[in-house]
Amino acid sequence: MKQYQETEPPYRLPDGLNVFSWSLPFLAEKVSSMLYTIVKKCAAVDEGDDAIDLTEKMSEKSVDAKKNARSVIKGKIKSVAAMSRMFGTLREEQELLLKIKNISPDGKLPRGILLEGKPAIKHAAKQFNIASELDRENEKRPKKKDQ
Question: Which residues contact 114 (CB under 8 A, 6 or more apart)?
């Protein structure tokens, strides 16, 4: 039986997240944007077909069916676009929350910040950016002394 020693992993995700939890917002945003592009292209192709078909004389029922199909496709496009925006917002907010957690001394979010909403979260992230900008001079490596 072989025994292996535990070694330090090369990289750890913030707050001990697993790769699936961490990457889900990114993946959802990309999948929804691809779906939005596909549905939009299909709608453009269908509109081109409608223009050709409408030049020929059609019955009123087929025209109504085409209009209904077009409105259904437009509804799908709107819902996919809304879903894409939602996943983008979720990803941005998760990144802000992780940044705020990492700057706090105890590794936790400040009390009440989630209840105060998005403006409070953005304000906390802005404070971090200001503090890191002011501390940039202290973060430099010391210059080598000439011997």
Answer: 121
Q: Which residues contact 26 (CB under 8 A, 6 or more apart)?
A: 91
Percent of the chain with pLDDT over 90: 0
CB 124 within 8 A of CB 110: yes
Angle (nearest 5°) at CA 37 between 34 and 43? 140
pLDDT tens digit string along 2-37? 787 777 777 777 667 777 777 887 888 888 888 888
Assess whether pLDDT exceeds 80 at residue 141.
Answer: no
Which 8-state DSSP code applies to residue 141? P
User: Which phi and psi (to 5°) does residue 28 adopt?
Assistant: -65, -40
Measured at the alpha carbon of residue 58, what is the angle toward residues 57 and 63, in degrees to the nearest 5? 130
Instruction: Give the number of other Cβ atoms within 10 Å of residue 107's Cβ.
Output: 10
Note whether 107 and 12 are within 8 A (CB).
no
Please give the pLDDT value at position 146. Answer: 63
